[in-house]
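I had to read the description of the data format several times before I understood it. In essence, backbone conformation is discretised, so a fold becomes a row of integers matching the chain in length. I therefore recommend that a typical entry be quoted early in the introduction. For illustration, here is how one protein appears when written out as sequence plus structure tokens.

***
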Amino acid sequence: MLVVLMMSGCKKNDNPISTEQPSQYLYGQVLDSHGSPLEGCGIHYIYTMTTSSLAKTGTTSSTTQIQFTIPTRSKVTLKIFRWYTRDTIATLVDDTLDAGEHAVTFDASKVTNGIYIYQLKADTLIQEIRMCLMVDDISFLVNTTPLVTTSSSGSFKIPYGVFGFDLPFVGPGSVLDSVYVSHTIEIVVYKPGYSTATKTITIDEANGINEIFTLTKP
């Protein structure tokens, strides 16, 4: 298993939300071997960065420690959001804390691949940091909470904004160059009782994509 967490600062308002018009969507439908739609299939993806140098500076662990300092005793919340849609993934802190340094552990073992934000609020102060989470072990990945699940018609759609293709990430230490999520990703479709299906696609943000996935019984 490989989990890579990479962080870079972001302004409070530089993450759009899904109510704003996205450029396009990745549309998909999942069928069984008889052509019938499959409901409740988990959709995940595996991505790479435009260079591997940043990944080498990441954290190869399913947990990471988030450290922060607050100047005065404050009401503090620390939450994890999905990039673009801002779905809440976890609430790590919701308490009144004394001034000083604090640390909390984020367990990402049940979180699927993607771009995330951790948001620290201390009274009226707000800080947001972007994170990349990537697991390249499919057998581990499919047991995390999926990005989306298929509907009763076997369908799903994901706005391209979720993938964060144009976001710059700058690594810690000596890594100075910005890197980006590659537009070529591997879609992973999973449903218990069926063989996992994968398909590599390259996304052109000017055009929507429709993909069909077929799951078979092992």
In short: Residues 138-141 form the longest helix (4 residues). The domain at 3-9+23-215 is CATH 2.60.40.10 (Immunoglobulin-like).
